[in-house]
Amino acid sequence: MVFSSLVFLFAFLPVTLAVYYLAPGRIKNLILLLASLIFYAWGEPVYVILMMLSILFNYFMGRDIDFNREDKNKKRASLVLAVAVNLVILGFFKYYGFFINTVNGILHLHIPCRELALPIGISFYTFQTLSYIIDVYRDRVNVQKNILHFGLYVCLFPQLIAGPIVKYVDVADQIEQRSMNLNKFGSGMVYFVRGLGKKVLLANNIGLLYDAVAGMELSGISVLTAWLGAAAYTFQIYFDFSGYSDMAVGLGKMLGFHFFKNFDYPYRSKSITEFWRRWHISLSTWFRDYLYIPLGGNRVRVERHIFNIMVVWLLTGLWHGASWNFVVWGLYYGTLLLIEKYITGRWIKQLPDVLQHVITMVIVMIGWVFFFSPDLSYAVSYIGHMFGVGSAGIAGRDAVYYLLTNAVLLLICAVGSTPYVHQIFYALMLNPKKKHIYSAVAVYAVIFLISVSYLVSATYNPFLYFRF
Amino acid sequence: MSRNTPDKKGMTSTVRRLAARLHQCTALVMLCIIALLTAANVLAEDRKMSEKENRNLAAVPEVSSDKIVSGQFMEDFEMYLSDQFVCRDLWVSAKTFLDSLTGKNYANGVYKGKDGYLIEDAAAPLEEQLQDNIAAINALANSGDAAVYTMIVPNAVSILSDKLPAFAPVRSQEQDLASFRSRLSVNVHDINIEKVLSAHRDEDIYYRTDHHWTTTGAYYAFTEAAASLGLDAEQISYNIYKVSNDFKGTMASASGYACKPDTIEVYVPETSSVQYVIEYVEEQKKSASAYQSAQLKTHDKYTFFLGGNSPLLRIKTTNEDGGRLLLVKDSYANCFLPFLIPYYKEIVVVDPRYYYEDIFTEIENEEITEILFFI
Q1: Residue B237 included in any domain
Q2: Which residues of B fall within a CB distance of 8 Å from A438?
Q3: What is the CA radius of gyration of chain B?
């Protein structure tokens, strides 16, 4: 189930909230666990069993590591087993087909493989369980002896299928005890509505522009069209993903949890290093804490540091998907971060802010081309079109049309990517001299209702006697 | 902390209190909205069908373990919830209205053009089908049994391109038409109606809310066709009657755009005394009129003409001097056919999309002398 669906908004959410708040304190976690399992099973009626097995396995491995805490070797063996099994499961479901195809390609073999459907959220919950296992091993957290609590940590529905990746250490206390009040609930609702609007109104609508460009023959697109397509995707992925994270954070608050923010206005960045401090923060933090720093981080010789960065970014790329595009995308960022650190970092800071910003955004947009392209040759050709190589002129009729009809939306997206909207809105609404809070409430209600109208209309499906 | 000392986040206690108040109010208002809509969805009676979308709406899905394991139940339930969402049509209208506020003028393949015209882009012709059609037309023309005519009816998008939104990226039909014509045998007489339609493009020759042409559009095409077919178009003059002011056609349905309804007109010969009878062969019905008023009460009012599409019609008239015509047609011909009727002794009308018999037998049995293809 996704948050931006009618079944979530008008069936799952009201029922879950009602039961959760009416239930006595000690069974609230049980209610949440059951709700989360239903939430997951709605989209994955079969793989929900895989997730439950994963919960059981990691629960016992956590206990096992804790049980062996006096015996370093046994403890380490348990850790290795736990990490290996988690990665094998993830690898099997996510990378098996990619791996076999690559082997076939290199060795000219024809090993048959049935590509399995990827279980929703497996990349997220596997990373969550790994954070628990590793932190128990490092004695950073106490082992969780209550399987209900542990299960709830893994499959808590707000962050289950699209993050943020919540580290166990950050919510260990909240699982057992958390405060709930109307202020917190309302602040969560504000987050949720904002996220819903970002996803349904901005991401989905600007996504139509991207779809239009992606649907064209590459040979026929002009420079302007290529940039419009890339810009549309750039906004779509940001508002989609950050909107979803906002909804997750908001739902968490409604249930009494506090999650860290996952995005911090990444498109205002003036360097790639800054961009990655602001984009998908929970993933970068995870890789930093559980891979980059254990590898030695940057407190090593330069060659080793380069190696560390490239390994981290190769795996970051692969985490996003099983294809060469993502590998290239990851290495692209690894390389750029190294270039920024060792070569351009110092003098780029001397450029005017606007220029720093423009350079960063162009790099980010080119990065997204690898993300949205079906394969590498398309990506390379598309980037070529953006810079006039093989493109059909600078701007065709279609490009002008798409620019004109999407100008308002593009502008809203651009302004919405900055912190200013939020700052100005709150400065106005919370001005102690002028009491505008009811207008603010109305704004949120309207965003919600408009989002609903788009969700209902998504299935507008007239039956026509076309061409008859 | 005093009232106006900012905390870590730069918030004074007054602002914090206001923020808390904002959160609390939002919580209550949103909970009310969600609860009300949820309750309304549960309580509202399910609709069987949607007039606006012209289709049956999803009903409560069946539950079975198979359907749950396969995920079918979940899909059906989401469809059900969406189809039966309280005031569904209102939400859809709100959405299309908001879309146009942001400058969008395209929905589900339809452009919202100038002067209320809803215009769809022309689809690329299917090469395989085109090849078959051209081969059949050429074979008939080359056999010499009957004179073969073709008439390509251009879409509104070609003739009314000035009504499209600025820069709308539509397919050019010109090339399609030119390539089609170049592949016709020299024995085929092509009736080119683009000029006459373009000349009258300021009149209502296409519906604003439907993809068809109007009776007026068909009339101008007829004057052009008459010249080629050797008919005297001047011979008959017409009284024009409005039969409906309330026609919202396929373009309105497809796009969901709010629009003013169209008018349907009929051209009734003033000076012709020719009587006729139409035999609907498949339906085993006969009628003395090409118009079916009952259809004006339905959703698709264009079916007023000939009651929609039938595989085979045989029209016999009292005009003993007229020829025998085979009309191979699509729905554009439905409002065009009445202009031809008084000039012929017999017209056989075939809709190739529904007609699976042997057309040659028909040509032979009915002693057809002329064949007109609507493309």
Answers
A1: yes
A2: 25
A3: 28
Q: Is A383 exposed, middle or buried (0-12, 13-18, 19+ CB in 10 A)?
A: middle
Q: Are B132 and B75 part of one and the same domain?
A: no
Chain B residue with the nearest C-alpha to that of A431: B15
- Chain A residues with CB under 8 Å of B81 CB are 6-7, 10-11
B113 domain residue, yes or no: no
Residue B115 lies in a domain: no
Provide the ipTM: 0.86
Question: In terms of domains, do B81 and B194 share one?
Answer: no
User: Which of B103, B169, B353 has the CB atom closest to A398's CB atom?
Assistant: B169
Cβ atoms of B193 and B229 within 8 Å: the answer is no
User: Does B199 lie in the same domain as B75?
Assistant: no
In this predicted model, what pLDDT tens digit does every residue of B22-51 receive, in sequence order? Answer: 899 999 999 999 999 999 998 988 888 777
What is the bridge-based pairing of β-strands B344-350 and B312-317? Answer: antiparallel
Chain-chain contact of B254 with A450 (C-beta, under 8 angstroms): no
- Residue A219 pLDDT greater than 90, yes or no: no
Question: Residue B103 region, left (φ>0) first, then alpha (ψ -120 to 50), else beta?
Answer: left
Q: Which residues pair with B119 in a beta bridge?
A: B111
CB-count burial class (<10 Å; 0-12, 13-18, 19+) for A215? exposed
Which B-chain residues 300-329 have CB contacts (< 8 A) with chain A?
A: 300, 309
| Residue B46 to chain A, least CA–CA distance (Å) | 16
User: Which residue of A408, A454, A468 is in closest CB contact with B95?
Assistant: A454
Considering the domain boundaries, does residue B5 fall inside one?
Answer: no
Q: Does residue B256 belong to the interface with chain A, where contact is any CB pair within 8 Å?
A: yes
Name the pairing type of β-strands B118-120 and B110-112.
Answer: antiparallel
Question: Which of B31, B66, B101 is where one domain is finished?
Answer: B101
Q: Is B88 found in the same domain as B221?
A: no
User: Does B147 lie in the same domain as B97?
Assistant: no
Last residue of a domain, one of B49, B66, B101: B101
Residue B263 belongs to what domain range?
121-374
**B97 and B125 share a domain?**
no
The contacts of residue A348 (CB under 8 Å, 6+ apart) are A271, A340, A356, A359
Q: Tens digits of per-residue pLDDT, B221-250? A: 999 999 999 998 888 899 999 999 999 988
- SS3 state at B311: coil
Nearest CA in chain A to B84: A456
Chain B interface includes A468 (CB < 8 A): yes
Distance, in angstroms, between B68 CA and closest chain A CA? 7
Number of domains within chain B: 2
**Best B18, B22, B92 residue to mutate vs chain A (most A CBs within 10 Å):** B22
Tokens for A367, please give them: 């990065």
User: Does A444 lie at the interface with B, CB-CB under 8 angstroms?
Assistant: yes
Paired tokens of A88: 């094998």
For residues B315 and B364, membership in a common domain is answered with yes
Query: pTM for the whole thing?
Result: 0.86
Q: Do B18 and A5 touch (CB under 8 A)?
A: no
Statement to judge: residues B52 and B169 lie in one domain: no
